Fold each of these.
Amino acid sequence: MRFVSFLAFCLSISASVSSASTTNFTASFQQFQQQFGKQYQETEWEHRLAIFTQNMQTIFSHNAGNHSFQMNVNQFSDLTPEEFKASYIQGFRRKREN
């Protein structure tokens, strides 16, 4: 059921966007918040919306090209690449030899 809801969400975004550079993503951001249970302090909401908008523009730009894969919204769509790397990419750490 969650997959069906997510798929409907993605299709509604795709259908409502004619041009990523001129589209207001506020409604899509609100749907994203609901879908992934995201809540923000009032002071952070605008900042996260701006990041989400930039990520949506990146997604639409990528998907307009001839690539072997498509990008889409996920639970990380409100993070900058730097925030994502700092929080989720730990990398390989060698064990120190003494």
Amino acid sequence: MAAAAASATGRQKLSQYDAVTKMIKALMDGIKSDSHLDIGCNDGVRIRIVKSKGRILGIDIDRDALSFAKKRKIEVCLMSAEKLAFADNSFELVTMIE
């Protein structure tokens, strides 16, 4: 019984993940430039999925996660969302998704 519930929960999370990924791709289709900032990117897994859609910069405060992302050639910076080091209007799209 517990295994079936865990499996259903896993499918639900995957479905939600796919829906969010589709939403990001649709938003990126609507922007004029390639400027997308992903706040709290962690290891960059979502960036890897939508990266073909343009330039995406990921920021996070987790050094280990960013190290993992860099090994996969994902553009990331160690930075807090509370203290962004970018000028206003540097990005046309900003995402922050769990």
Amino acid sequence: MEKSNKKPFFTATFRKSEIEKYIEKDFSERLNFIFIGSLVVGKRPMLAIQIIEALHNQGQKVFLNIFGDGVLSEELQNYIKANKLEKIITCHGNQPN
């Protein structure tokens, strides 16, 4: 028996009456983002910070709140400070439920 690299997939079909109209969104106001989780490599908090930094550098109004703690906490804080991102990123640490 020969193995196939073909994978089944599902394609949705809709009636015209079921299709919702696309609503134009206004992104001129500040976009708020949130990261919640352990500050560990597997959760990729640095990627979240760098995405916010890139958007900011492109002229987008953005803000990131980070909630959590972990082994990367100090490294992330140092990166935020070194790149002068304190006005667009705030680390809150762990918070009670």
Amino acid sequence: MTHEEIRELIRTNGFETEALSCIEELSELQKEITKAMRNKNGDRYAESNIDDMIYEIADVLITIDILKLLFHIHDNEIDYEIHFKEKRIKERYLSKKD
């Protein structure tokens, strides 16, 4: 969806409706992750719900675009935080290896 299409969606449905929809989509992904963990077989997670997982991840990615517009968050702000957090994760990982 383009930014303009998302803006129109927000204008049509309203902030609260779109915010609640985002919460619902995140919850649905959480449910699929839980299913995969519950059906774990040894070191492998269940692949039986992989299509559902893909479907829910796609919904969440769309949701993230909606959230960015709802809260006026720019990609460069998120990119900065991703870079910062990835660096911190790498540092923690490397410190555990030593």
